[in-house]
Amino acid sequence: QVQLVESGGGSVQAGGSLRLSCAASGRTFSGYAMGWFRLAPGKEREVVAAISGSGGRTYYADFVKGRFTISRDNAKNTVYLQMNSLKPEDTAVYYCARARSNYIGGGTWAGSDNYEYWGQGTQVTVSS
User: Fold this and answer.
1) Where do the DSSP E strands lie in the chain?
2) pLDDT tens by residue, 64-77
């Protein structure tokens, strides 16, 4: 069983930054792609970003391009989401997820069904 534990959420003013971390259990971390999703009140869950097992390929939702950066440290079994220039509409619970494989090309990175394990989420609140 894989466990994912997010941290780093909090409250910031618009324009501020936060860095989310997601620590994963297991010895095959580098063999799987990872993703970040978010869920805001009254909205459906949406993908934010994803990264391949090696970290060589990254994918972003249009609404975070240029502001958020996903990265990973396989030696630490951790994936990160650096969030800059935060906006009030970024307010949500952010979840990390481990994909079912290392393949997230062809648009599969954006589908929540392609992720097998999920963390408990961390709240991000951005005030105007």
Assistant:
1) 4-7, 10-13, 18-24, 34-39, 46-51, 58-60, 68-73, 78-83, 92-99, 115-118, 122-127
2) 999 999 999 999 99
